[in-house]
Amino acid sequence: xxxxxxxxxxxxxxLMEAGWVRCLGLKVLVKCMVVGLAxxxxxxxQETQQIPEVRSTVVVVGTPAPLTEEESPRSxxxxxxxxxxxxxxxxxxxxxxxxxxxLEQRGGGGVQADLSIWGSSYEQTLVLLNGWRVNxxxxxxxxxxxxxxxxxxxxxxxxxxxxxxxxxxxxxxxVVDFETAKPKAGATLKMREEGGSFRQDDQAAVASWGSKxxxxxxxxxxxxxxxxxxxxxxxxxxxxxxxxxxxxxxxxDVLVGGSDRSxxxxxxxxxYNSWERTKEWFAGINQQVDRKTEVVLAYRRHxxxxxxxxxxxxxxxxxxxxxxxxxxVRRSDDLPWKGxxxxxxxxxxxxxxxxxxxxxxxxxxxxxxxxxxxxGKRWGTVSGGMREEIFSGGISVATPSGAMSYWVAKRVKLRxxxxxxxxxxxxxxLYYSDPSTIGNPGLKPESVWNVDGGADWYWSRSLTxxxxxxxxxxxxxxxxxxxxxxxxxxxxxxxxxKFTGVDVGADWRPVAGQEFRVGLTxxxxxxxxxxxxxxxxxxxxxxxxxxxxxxxxxxSGWMIRQRLRVVNRVDRGVSPVWDASVVYDxxxxxxxxxxxxxxxxxxxEIVGVQ
Length: 610
Hints:
5-stranded mixed sheet, 21-stranded antiparallel sheet, 6% helix, mainly beta
């Protein structure tokens, strides 16, 4: 084989003359990828960076202890936030890289983006922050009201499928854990200012300092916009501080933060120009007691002020304040067999709400769990566990799980898992009432059996192929249904809700700095459970969700990102959305451009919300 090198100075005129650098129209999505690969190969001789292997990515959800991707017996995805921090508008934008995840976003700036996995409803996914629960007890619409700016988040770890054995309520279809980034040694200050369409104005700053035994990170962000249509303006603000200390007591991680979001909710909850404001306060600590034991404590307070008619606040207004406390003791013990370990824990959770509409309510629950893991480098991993959770009044639920992976060849791994998940109704599900929605205090907790199996093929250091088949069978699924548009939505339990789907993907990194990712999730649901009724949430799933993305990065500091998402929702047709970013990330000043929906597609991720 003969290797030829060509300087960028000589290559660009040739490529331009050939017509490959005409960034006009939708053809740019393919042509810029070809240019990127060509330039990446041209510059390869000048690169010393090693191509990162997908299989070495660390997975921190679905198992009690972190595993590499090749060791994990579950279907997971890890999205690196700090790898290309200026290429994404926000964390919701980044999460759309995973076609297994469906984000139903109502407004900009991180306002009310409902999250679901593998066809579930948005309430059936558990959201964590460094392992602390942040799911909202009032309504799951606020599960993504994170009290930290994007600049402090290091990665987003996604578990596809039920996870209630380790994580408890709400992990019916999956778990999303936002992990904050650990600062490097020394001091760093990053400040960001951006302006955009619809009078958007965004500022952010993150300051960090780190040493071997002590580090501190302080960050804040605010985002303003008039909105893309009338009464859709928003103001989102969040700020936090995280301190990590290593002492004679062990490792300590203390995080405190808060957020304040006000936004026009025009058409969010029906044909009303509503207005809403939410606030959040959060404090949590992870304290290592010894090498095997860790104590976790956290407190979350969330408030919600809702006005049905922005031009007539006195017509209908609600004020909610809910408080959540959580405490957990986690322990790990090595077993006599090589690669075997046992993980156990006990938890206590308390939720309270004070509402002008819902009234005053509270509930307690406690749980204990145990999980066994056996990992062999040559053959695979086997895990199994059981959780028992007891609610106020003595009601309990058991959630077993089992998973395994097996290497059938040097580069081919088979995996399978089965697990039960459950979810308690939110306070809105139980008690809320307004002209368009009626709660149901008689709702039962919902549960699911989730089964999945798949294969991971590590073709080479630069190419990975994955495929997963999954099925979920839900009991007492909670949804809002109605006979027709003339009556309000009513919260009900549904039985016979089943989903079956296939999830496939490929990750190709041909040369350093170049990455191509494609993924497709197809899904089929049993709508017979509705018995002729209309569904507001459960059957709002995408029949197909496809993502094709290219990220090209060069030693000169330039990076280009192109992504095409194509979503086909039930009864709403196909929506192609093209996003792109151009970033220069060298030096003290780093300019960037982020462009969303360049295809100018009109679509509804939530029924009735354009």
